[in-house]
Design goal:
It is a single chain. It contains three helices and no strands. It has helices at about 1-35, 40-60, 70-90. Helix 1 (about 1-35) packs antiparallel against helix 2 and helix 1 runs parallel beside helix 3.
């Protein structure tokens, strides 16, 4: 069961990295496509995405003990919420 647990952690980290990384990449593309735009908000959004990434990774690394399923569920829920927040803010750039 420990192998399955480790695979779950590895996959969750990969998903977080890919999803938040894709948003950051999209923001960089937006910046390149809009060279005359004020980049203050987009840079703040990149910083916010990095903070979300760091926070989620810390939470994943802290999973241990009993109720790992509940802990993962909480992290997944927070990840989805954070992704929606980032995408909504990106749409408003």
């Amino acid at each position: 069961n420990k192998t399955k647990f480790m695979a779950s952690i590895r996959q969750l980290k990969k998903d977080i990295n890919n999803e938040i990384g894709a948003i950051i990449e999209d923001i960089y593309h937006w910046e390149l496509s809009n060279p005359k735009a004020d980049l203050t908000k987009s840079e703040q959004l990149i910083d916010e995405a990095i903070v979300y990434f760091d926070t989620l990774m810390q939470q994943v690394n802290a999973v241990k003990g009993e109720n790992t399923k509940k802990q993962f569920s909480s992290i997944l829920s927070e990840k989805e919420k954070n992704i929606k927040v980032l995408l909504n803010k990106f749409a408003k750039l």
